[in-house]
User: Fold these one by one.
Assistant:
Number 1:
Amino acid sequence: MSKNIFTDKEIAVLSSNPYVKSVSPKGITYSEEFKQYFITEYHKGKLSREIFEEAGFDVNVLGIKRVKSCSSRWRKAYNNTGILGLKDSRSESLGRPRKNELSLEEQNARLEAQINLLKAENELLKKIRLAERGQK
């Protein structure tokens, strides 16, 4: 969280941006789409500030420190775990991990969910590659 507090007017402006999931007076949650867009543009050689401005953000409202910290956090997450590192996993955390063993049906359901997630990720990567080829 930043020390900069957003005013009600700034919250309204930030909330209207399609790349914003939610805004509170102290923080902003960006969409996964924006994080992926940020990484692709950054790898093309653009500066963090330019990417935020092109996406419709006022860097003076956000604060340059917030822009730089988001940039370094997202790049580090992407380098460590790829696109999955950019995913907001706070809603998926269910608290304390299970101690008991899962039944075969539960294991099978989890593995199927994981397979579906990986298939969706592969489709997304294919779309990104096609889009990059179209730009060249």
Number 2:
Amino acid sequence: MHLSKNKKLLRLSIAAVTAASSITLFGFDQTAHAAALSEVFVRFDRMQISTATTGTVCAKPASTATEAKVKVTFPTGYTLGAAGTFTVSTTNLSWPTGGTAWPSIATASTVSGQDVTFGSGDLTAGTLYCFNWTNSAAVTVTSSASPSNLGSVTTQTSTPTDIDTAQFASASITNDQIVVTATVPPAFSFALSGNTDALGTLSSAAVSTSPTPRTVTVNTNAKNGWMVWAKDANTGLSSATASATIASTTPGTVSTLSAGTAGYNTGVTSSIVSGGAITVDPAFASGGVNYKGGGLDTGLRLLASSAGVANTAVLTMTNNIAVNASTAAASDYTDTITVVGAGLF
């Protein structure tokens, strides 16, 4: 009788242990069967120690279960803000190739320890999904420099039950920035297109003008601009043999020459490829009008200026001359014009 009772009790005990083992195994299977994400990516936009940062999370699910949440576990030592600081966006900020907007991703609902849980839409297996957390108050990098700071990304059902998961590793470094410096030295180039201007044989019946007007070309990186001046040797064209001068017309004031009235002036026009606008001084601005310009004398007079840098700024100088019937005859009328420029650095 006692032996029968003992056998019965033994059978019940074995059955209880077997049932408990099955429950334990079933529970273990439920946790352990979270599949591995095909890809996982977490980028911290700053990696410098003790620095607040935004960042990006990407994951490629392998399972076909219905996702409702995603849990990001940040590395130990990283300081996390409140759930409300984990605001999100799906703007592609240099995501990995193939990355697409994470559907229905939402501001984090909970922060527990190093775990941050976000609401999510259902995902398609084999697609790489990404989102960004956009508030640097959400995450601060750990205070010590170290490699292989481990975290994980886990997709979950609404229960929540884990679906797919995978670890990621990042690093924290003392300084994540490179300060780049350089020097651009002051530059100024100045060139004349030629050093002669033969006006030919003069006649009181017409105004003579430069057959090939000479140009001044300025290139400079002077941030405050540049200026060009000119002066002549004789305040006109002078002849040593005739002891005569065809005088410059009203130096400092613009004039337009006419045939039969003796006079001498220089007209200026301008062009520029790029840079600051050029202002031709009103005393020399011809505006493209024939025989219009200003007289030069022995003091430097401003021809043109600019308030900015110059890439191929060109001043075209046209010399005009008129004589009358009493202008002394000679073949040695001459003048020398000196042209200089400077940058305002």
